[in-house]
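[09:14] KT: can someone run the structure on this one? pasting the chain below
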Amino acid sequence: MNSIKMASTSSVRPIRSAQRILDFLNHFSRDKFATAALVIFSALVLSSVFADLVAPHDPLKQDLLNRLKPPVWVEGGSWTYVLGTDLLGRDILSRCIHGGRMSLGIGAAVIAMGGVFGSLMGLLSGYLGGRFDAILMRYIDFQISIPYFLLALTIMAAIGPGTLNLIIVLSIGSWPLFARYARSIMMSLRNQVFIEAARVAGGKEVAIMTRHVLPNILSPLITLTTLELSRIVLTEASLSYLGMGVRPPTPAWGLMVQEAHDYLMIANWAVTTPGVFIMITTLSINIFATRLRISTDPLQRGKH
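[09:31] RB: done, structure tokens below
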């Protein structure tokens, strides 16, 4: 009899999980702007991952005979260089595609380092409380009081530019946000009935946090991660523009704007094209994250 109950319970769980996924997709797809943002962002991610296959030219290949070629819709442009070329004759479309790999790759690395570390620290702080919580929160208050971009710029000026240094600095600036957010959710869950029941049943602290707490905070943390990715992309582009981020000749959107800003009046496409890629990426992420928060939160979904 017990085996029959266990079998029926195990068969019901996948059905419920599949139904929740279908409900989420159905509710999410009602927002056409969010669906379009998801499609655009997915296309950017896929083109960045398969940049070597998608890019029509080598992003580092210079051709001074074809420098500052206009895009195809401008007189003098050609389909060979759809979005034109920069001051060294490099294909702008190929550099923008590979620049997306750099920006989104840095964002993913920062989330993997700062986001995971900050979330774990926030969970421990909210769950344990006491002196550890007080010391950690005071440090986070101190760091958050310093503007994020100013902190990153100061550290990068001290240690020097470079992709690895940029990832470390942005991770240092991002983890307090994840820690504070995870702590606030943990504080609201710490005295819930199901947590107390797990303690009474003899569950270990690690098991309680991984089996009971983590699934309940995963949805809001995913939304925060998506929004934070947008801020990381903007910060990386700003630091690269100032010469404190990615080093040339590596393609990066902010670096492309910096290299071409002196030619704005005679070759505006070399500046505006990477700027448009930055705008589209951050806008699509923000629209998607806003709808994701509504679709994954039953209270917000009911109000909407």
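[09:33] KT: thanks! Residues 1-13 have pLDDT under 50 and may be disordered.
[09:34] RB: yep, looked fine to me
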